[in-house]
Structure formats: C-alpha cells, structure tokens
Amino acid sequence: VTKAMVVAAAAANPSGLVAAAVLEHDRNRDSVWSWVYPTISEELKAVILEKSSVTDREIEKPRKIFGRFQQTWFYCVTCPVDSLPNADLPLVTTISMVILAERYHPEMYYNLAAMMLQQYAPSASGPAVLSAYLSIFTSGSFEDKFAVSDYKDVRKAYLKGSIKGVISTFGIESILIYIAVLLKKRIVVISPDPEELVMLVRVLPQMVFKRLNWDIIYPYVHVTDPEIEQLSASKEAYIAGFTDESISDREDLFDILVDVPNKSISIASHASNHFGLGKIHKEIAMYMTSAAEDDSVKDMDVIKELVERTDTLLEGLNKLATPSESNPEKQVVSIEAIRARKMPPSMHKFLYNLALAEGMVEGEGSA
To answer: What DSSP line would sit under 163-214, residue for residue?
Structure first.
C-alpha cells in the first residue's frame, strides 16, 4: 500500500462510508437495532453486538472499539444514555452508534459516530441521522459539525499509539514482534481490556512502517465460528486481537502469541525455525530497549530508526538478487546465493524467509 494508493482511494469515495446503525439496550435488557442505513447483514450484526458493550450496565463513559469482518471495517462508540446531553430516550440505558466503512481511520469514524449520536439522542430521530449520513456520503461534510477534509492525512491514524510503550511492556522480546511483522507472520495478541487491545494491535504494524499496511490487522476478534473461520481461511499474514485467553491453545492460528497480562511473547512450535536470532537482530533489539528507556527519544524516532534498519536489511537482500528465469523483469533470491554468504545458518533462514515475504523467491517454501 503506497501513499498514492491511499490518496486515490480517498478521492474515489471521500467518506469511505458503507453503512451506519444505532444499537440500543433498553430497561428490559433487550438489545435492538433501532436504525440501520442502508443495510447490515445479520452475521455482521451478531459480530458487532458481541463487541459493542451495549449490554454492559456498568458502563460509565463512552467506549470506543473497532474491528474488521469480511473486509469491512466497523467502528463503534457506546455510552450510557445519561451521558448524552439533551437525550430523550427514557426506555434506553445504553446506546451504540456503529459506522461501517471501506477503510482504516479510527479517529475519523469515532468522531463521526459521536456526532451522529448527538443527532439521534434528542428525539430518537432516524431522519436526523440519515440527513447527516447522506450529507457526509455525498459531500464529505455535515453543517459545521463534521468534515472528512479534517482527516485527510490518514498517516496520523497510522502513527497513533506508542511503539515505545509496546517495547517497554515486552522488553527484549519485542524483537520477536519486529521479526514477525517483517516476515509477514501471523500474530495473535491477548488482552482482557478491549480498548487496550485495539490500541496495541493498531501499533504493531509501525514496526515495519514503510509498508503502510494496516489491512493486516483484526483488532478485536471473538472465538466464534465465523470469526475464527475468517482467520483460518486467510492466506495472508495478520495481527489479530483477542480478549479470550483460550485462543492460546489454537497454535494453528498464530506464529507468535503476544500475551499482554503476562508481558510475554511465545513462539508457536511450528514456527520456531523462523525466529532464529543473529547479530543483526541483537543490535536491533538492543536499540529498541535502549530507546524505550530514553525519554529524549520519541515514538517517531523509533519508527524512523526501524525503517532505516529495515531498509538496510532489504538493500542487503537486493544485492543477492538476480533476474528471474520465468520473468527477467523480476528480481529473485535463491537459497544458494544466500548460503554462499558466510553467515550462521539462522541468518540464512532469516534472509530466505525475508525474500519470501518480499515476493523475491521463484517458488514457495521456507528454508
């Protein structure tokens, strides 16, 4: 994903909107989709309802979560009705505004959802919400309350959160996350707090920021058949977040497991040969932990340094490349070329798997 591709997608559909909905939980403990436009599948409704917190009677302040299901992003802001000024919803205890969108931009859609809640709450007015939705869908703005143009730099969303915070949490083991993202491996993250979970998951692609690819994340996943099948069927790498610690028993779904409560990272038994460490990994790991402890080093400094170190790795890989026999315009790297370098076997495996991740291998497989 390049910056040009992001800009082109935004130009084609400035709002990125797919649908919007209001989900209410009433005093009879029933949850009702009181307004939906234009439509949301029953399967997706079930996924969102489970994550929304709308049934939580203990909620005291707005909760914001987002996720992805069947290639659609969903953003949900849930709050107690009493927290909404001028709300006239006497039978409702908790309410969620749900936004479905084509792309990743949490802050934009969170703020849109909050604004649309303000439109709905005074009179449970579906037409008021529809008016705002259609205005934003067609023109990118609604009165003076919301404008897509205020969020045109999507890279601000990519930079949200703290990569230093992640490194501080996991210490020297953070290098395993870097390797997993770089080699396009499957990462599962466990945290009991949904809001903490989605924030941590969205930070991890910053480890290899130059790819600008946040389509690999599934920030909040439940252990249900539709969502697990989605991951099982994926042929691409992903970073998936769970609050259910039972997912740790499903090694078939991950290459590394990031356990937030225990501040630990474990490697699945089938993936251990992908995480052999060499001198270059030690240097990167030492930089990461040192930077995390240095208050003068900012998150952006760490991201930039990791980009430079990744570029150095890729430059070394490119020096080993030769034209493909089947497609001379494509540069490929053979295991023989890597083995000709005087390096430990673990580095041979690492470089070959990096070549696989970069699409620089004639066939498929791992060293």
So the answer is: HHHHHHHHGGGHHHHHHHHHTT--EEEE-S-HHHHHHHHHHGGGGGGGG---
